[in-house]
Amino acid sequence: MLIKSADDKIKRLMLLEDLQRSHLLDMSQKKWLREELMRVKKGIQGERDSAHYLDSYFKGSENHAVLHDLRFIVEGDVAQIDHLVISRGGGIYLIETKNYAGNLVINDHGEFTVEYDDIRFGIASPIEQSHRHERT
Q1: Mean pLDDT of the 88-95 span
Q2: Which structural domain, as residue segments, surrounds residue 68?
C-alpha cells in the first residue's frame, strides 16, 4: 500500500536553471551549476524509477506500507529518506537510491568511487547514509 509519494522537485530544477542565466556568475560557477542540474535530474529519475518498481511490487499489499521522499530534522540533523517500506511483521527497510551510469567501485575501506572511462570521482557511501538515517 502506498502511503506517501515523492514530493515535486520542479522548483529546485527551475532554480538551478534560472541561476545558470545569472550575469553575476563566472564560467566555472556556471559549469558547476550545469553539472549540478544534471546530477539532480539523474537523482530524481533514479528515485522515480525505484519508486515505480516498489509501488508496482507492493501494489495492493496488505502486509507492507511504502513511503517515498521523507525528510526529518532531529536535534539539527537532517535525514532525507528516499524510500521506506514497513512490513506488518515489524520490519522497516530504508532504501537509498543512487543513479550512476558508470562503474561503481567499493574499496576495502568501504569508500565508493564511480568510474566513467578515464574519469573517477568519489561519492558519499549510501550505506553510511542509511546508517545515519537509522540513528535519526
Answers
A1: 92
A2: 2-96
